[in-house]
Amino acid sequence: MTQPNANELRAMHSRFAPTLLRADLSGLSTGDRKALDHCVKAARIVNELYFRQVYSGNPGLRKQLANPNTELEHAQHDYFHLRKGPWCPLDLTPFIAGVPEKQPEGANLYPEDLTKEEFEAWIGTLSAEEQAAARGFFTVIRRGKGRKLKVVPYSQEYAGLLRKAARHLRRASVAADDLTLRAFTASRADALLSNSYSDSDVAWLGLNGAVEIAFGPYETYEDTLFGYKALFEAYVTVVNATESANLQLYAVHLQGLENNLPIDERFRCPNLAGSSPMKVVDLVYASGEAMSGIMTAAFNLPNDEAVRETHGTKQVLLKNVQRAKFDLVLTPIARRILPDRLQHYTSFEAFFTHILWHELFHGLGPHNITVNGNATTVRLSLTTDHSAFEEAKADICGLWGMRRMIDEGVLPGALLKPMYVTYLASAFRSMRFGIEEAHGKGQALQFNYLVEKGAFKIGGGMVDLDFDLLQQAVSDLCGEIMTIQANGNAAAARAMLEKYGTITPAMQEVLDRLSDVPVDIAPTFEHYQ
Ligand code: ZN
């Protein structure tokens, strides 16, 4: 396999539009401003943690590329550091010679030669408690004496780096004026060392000041072997208080939406855990998985089902990130692929609001389920298909929820058409991330399903929609996805992803017309290099 030359690599790099993300720090108290500095110091260490988690060969490659001389070496160096590894999620092959064709399925979280069969056979020999540890978010699987598999907690595997990060978080805790920031940074520092994250997840839900920080091992997307292991990332942000208060108004409607989900009544949750806090923030600094591929525009945490069940979740929307994506990526896409009569419906408000409802709907629908009389979770039942399926659910049910909110007068009626049009253009924005990735695959599933129902149309490199057919088609898809989740039906999830989660020739024709539009943004930060 030949690797890209310097020009090709620069072209690949340019798919990520450079952008300076600004954030207003003038409202922070002196103590919180100092705490922010310490949080960023801790967050820098997360880059190194993620770098090691994702590929065992990364430290060696970094050394190899440390002193670039030729054009090619410079291009490789820059792209390697942008992507934090020798692969880009947009491409099927590596951009540096001498590495595996694909990122190992288990990243550097399992032995690279481990097969699913060997893992499952080994799991069968363990006690229930050991099995939970082996499948846990915060452990790696390594080989010990005689190649025997063993479970190693993150606190041990990454002990040196975690101690350093914990020290910075403790300094942030001492400096902060905001008591909730003090509490979270102190308890997360403890968690890094104890490997027990639940208490600090609860403290994170309670963050209520001007600084909002997510810090730790969170998402499992990179573990494509099983989807068990969480990768480190950090988001250091400042809160937009006015916008956050506005969003909080939506919380009172969530139970009503859950009660009306288009699924069998027994699958609905009669009492959602508390109301979900929502924060609109501007990103000040990000690291680890957050800065490794497609930029996250919003997130809903924590992922620990036990904490979610008792304490609920929190949505964080990164407004300056979303604005940059809308201006630099979505707007040029809409101009290229939508018919003239739909152009003026593309709107940032619709884009922003749908991301919000996407996040809200991660908290709704089936999570803790019963399969064959046993209590389990959707995540564990659907294993590696869970991420793509859950992202599709959040997207399409978010749209379903917005429609209901418009009908009930909570959202303005003027949002109706912009909501569908912006969602359509944004579908092609997401699918350009590749359908190997959870969001892209989930988006392809939705698009093809809606085309089958006649609600979306595609041809000649353009897309269109039928406003009248969309409401029912969206509701049907919501129901199908959530029913499969409620039943923990892994075979049905797989079948649906295989049927719809693909790029058809007509879709490829549209994607080809977008080849010179940036795929995503590559941010730098106003206050921290
Ligand atoms: Zn999501």
Please characterize this protein's 3D structure.
It is a single chain. 51% of the residues lie in helices and 14% in strands. It is built from 23 helices and 13 strands. It has helices at 6-13, 30-54, 58-64, 71-83, 116-123, 128-134, 154-157, 159-175, 179-194, 198-205, 241-248, 254-259, 305-311, 319-337, 340-343, 348-362, 378-382, 386-407, 416-431, 438-452, 467-486, 490-500, 505-512; strands spanning 16-21, 139-143, 149-153, 211-219, 231-239, 278-288, 298-301, 314-318, 368-371, 374-377, 456-459, 462-465, 520-525. The strands form five sheets. The chain has a five-stranded mixed beta sheet with strand order 4-5-6-8-7. A two-stranded parallel ribbon has the order 1-13. A two-stranded antiparallel ribbon has the order 2-3. α2 runs antiparallel to α8. Bound molecules: zinc ion (ZN). The site of zinc ion (ZN) has 4 residues, from α16 and α18.
Question: In percent, how much strand structure appears in the residues?
Answer: 5-15%
- Estimated helix fraction: 40-55%
Strand order of the largest sheet: 4-5-6-8-7
Structure classification: alpha+beta
Ligands: zinc ion
Cα Rg: 22 Å
| Number of continuous helical runs | 23
Shape: globular
Q: What's the main sheet like?
A: 5 strands, mixed
In whole angstroms, the N-to-C terminal distance is: 36 Å
What ranges have pLDDT less than 50 throughout 5 or more consecutive residues? Answer: none
Count of beta strands:
13
Mean pLDDT: 94
